[in-house]
């Protein structure tokens, strides 16, 4: 009987940890986690292509993925290290693959290697993520979450 209680407490602790991951506030409904592409791509396999585009929003022109969903950057990432992993990457799925655009994107496209070995798309050196709570193209509900998540804006005058 004690073993069942310990297992139940462990499961509860794991659920609380997952809900409290990067960007989820305790008072917000739990995000619907999209499968993390990093787990599917695996190290050593060719990286898929990530189609990038733009969309006008109330926040300005933002970078989007091929399905029109807004892409975000995380302030805690650095030019050499990705910090959104584990439960964080379930709420903020990384854009896995090599980015390409239609030639009209003014920023620099690239990739960074995630801790699991997968290539994550970058724009102007920032790793790119979606937000699991954005349920339709053009939504920007992740902007400002925890003060560390921001839409990636695209400035046509950028050079």
Automatic annotation (TrEMBL):
Keyword Transmembrane helix listed: no
Protein name: Lipoprotein with Yx(FWY)xxD motif
InterPro entries, per the entry: Lipoprotein_repeat
One Pfam family in the UniProt entry: Lipoprotein_15
Region annotated Disordered, chain positions: 27-51
Keywords: Signal
Compositionally skewed regions (Low complexity) per UniProt: 29-48
Keyword Disulfide bond: no
Domain of life: Bacteria
First and last residue of the signal peptide: 1-19
């Amino acid at each position: 009987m004690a073993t069942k209680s310990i297992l139940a407490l462990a499961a509860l602790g794991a659920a609380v940890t997952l809900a409290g991951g990067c960007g989820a506030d305790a008072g917000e409904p739990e995000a619907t986690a999209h499968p993390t592409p990093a787990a599917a791509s695996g190290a050593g396999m060719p990286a898929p292509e990530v189609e990038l585009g733009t969309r006008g929003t109330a926040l300005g022109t933002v970078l989007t993925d091929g399905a029109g969903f807004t892409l975000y950057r995380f302030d805690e990432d650095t030019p050499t290290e990705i910090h959104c992993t584990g439960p964080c990457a379930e709420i903020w799925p990384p854009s896995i693959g090599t980015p390409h655009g239609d030639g009209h994107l003014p920023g620099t496209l690239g990739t960074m290697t995630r801790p699991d070995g997968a290539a994550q798309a970058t724009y102007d050196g920032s790793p790119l993520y979606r937000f699991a709570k954005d349920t339709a193209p053009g939504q920007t509900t992740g902007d400002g979450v925890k003060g560390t998540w921001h839409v990636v804006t695209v400035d046509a005058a950028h050079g």
